[in-house]
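Exam revision sheet. Question 4 asks you to relate a sequence to its structure. Input first:
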Amino acid sequence: MFGELLDDWWEKHGKQTRSRFNYHLPKVRERFGDRRARDIQADDVEAFLADLAREELAASTINKYRTILCSTFNFAVRREKFDRNPVSVVPQRKEPPGRDRFLAPQDFRKFLDECRGDPQLYAFVWLAASTGARKGEILPRKWSEVEMEGAAPHIYVPRTKNGRSKRLALAEEVIRALQKLPSYRRDEYVFPADRTNVRFKGTQGHAWDMRKPFQSACERAGIKNLRIHDLRHMATSILFMDGIPEAIIKKLTGHRSRELERYEHLSPVIKRQTVELIAKKLSDTATDTGDSEGEDESSEVIERNGGDDGARTPTWQCRLLWGK
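Answer key, structure tokens:
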């Protein structure tokens, strides 16, 4: 049976990866788990991916399901438990180029109002937006990892995507939202799975996605093209706009330096604020001294800040260079 090959792949390979395939396993088991591996053909895989597309899943998500199937068969072939891989001839879905979406604070508040009727979604959105944490860092958390008392309330994440542990500091709004969760003092997990759903039987006890309620709230708020991961972008962008040093942002969000480069140009708001600061400083007659002797001093400042050879200063530092 294919389910046996899938179990072998998962125990010996799949769960050691950082791709979080455990979120997608239930759907693969449901579709192919009880079928003979010999009976699974390329057309069956194509039909499965087509059904996922009709559910309006992103191409990148559909490709993860294909990867599970392909990797399972390849793993079995390498260990001489099977002789072919029917998925190898099935092409991956074409993924759109990467894009960044920045949700302005006023739009976030409008969106948040539409989440209030769902305590789980409301707490999840607040937590993701205020900490910049990934979905996979938030949903598996247990109440034993949550500390809401003392001087430094936080949620402990034992392992992040980067392989490190970290603590997510909790704002007062987040603490209040967590305390209103149905699971508070009643369940092991902060965001427990719907145990009435047969898909979750025998799998993890926590929720693995918030996509459907998240998208419904977006529709009610009139917000388009927003993904859960964009909440992470928003949190990081706010820190950049307020001139928070990169070293601190890295500590809070777990980004690497090269990953943070994208946020310097993430939002038109950042660019607009920067040029407005420059224009205000250049047009402010109150800064004029009328003394030509200050010319040398001005030149020295320009050279220290990059000179006149086109060297650039990171966007997030402009506020510090040009003053508040």
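Marking note for examiners. The chain has a mean pLDDT of 79.
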